[in-house]
Amino acid sequence: MWWATPHPEAGHRYASARLQGREGDLPVADPPVDALKYLLARISAAEERSSRPRGSVGLIAVSKTRTVAEILSLAGRGQRRFGENYLQEALPKIGAFQGQLLEWHFIGRVQTNKSGLIARHFSFVHTVDREKVAAALDAHRPAGLPPLDVCIQVNIGNEPSKSGVALTDLPALAEAVARYPRLRLRGLMALPAPGRDFDGQRAGFRPLAVALNDLRGRGHALDTLSIGTSEDFEAAIFEGATLMRVGTALFGPRGVRAR
Fold first, then answer.
1. What is the Cα–Cα distance from 179 to 184, expressed in whole angstroms?
2. What is the C-alpha to C-alpha distance for residues 100 and 115, in angstroms, rounded to an integer?
3. pTM of this prediction?
4. Per-residue pLDDT tens digits for 55-65
5. CA distance 68 to 48
6. Which domains occur in the chain, in start order?
């Protein structure tokens, strides 16, 4: 595993946060820490109920709009994966944690004019939805870093309001992405329409799990199914999730993002 190099101009505003990273510096009563403990227990229980190996599901703490202090409270308790949607908001946070072993995941829409910074400062991108994005990330990935881990974002229900490749076009895009030497295709990501109940949530995730197995049958060595949020992560575990993106269940309701 490797960790992203911080943006050279990103960390100065939050330099003091780096000095508070020891576990003993954290307050005893810390809502995100309490929520993390509860969430990990629910994940473990869902793994057991679905006959999944314990520890087979990874947690990405979605930290968009969250402060360095909030991230620090979870990092101090062992949370290592953090997900960001907006590049300009993410760069100062990455800089604030320089030297700490955090793994930064980009989970927002990739604008090709910002692909250079994304390719340099993140370890994983979950939202490759067209070959143009893959080509831009590949072109900007520094030679001194390992290939950039990526997932293809799939629009399961062909919803106009969501990004992602259609299931029918997925095999061709996977073949294209797999050819780029500075990328490593790890799997698939999706945000299906909300299910009304547990069974409905499972049904929404199932086509992606089927698509992942289909791509494996075509020779792609894939190990990642990036599905599940605060509202439906237990159903996602039953359908094979290996990474979940959870924000509200950890941090509480989001505030308004500064623009």
1. 9
2. 24
3. 0.86
4. 999 999 999 99
5. 33
6. 28-250 (3.20.20.10)
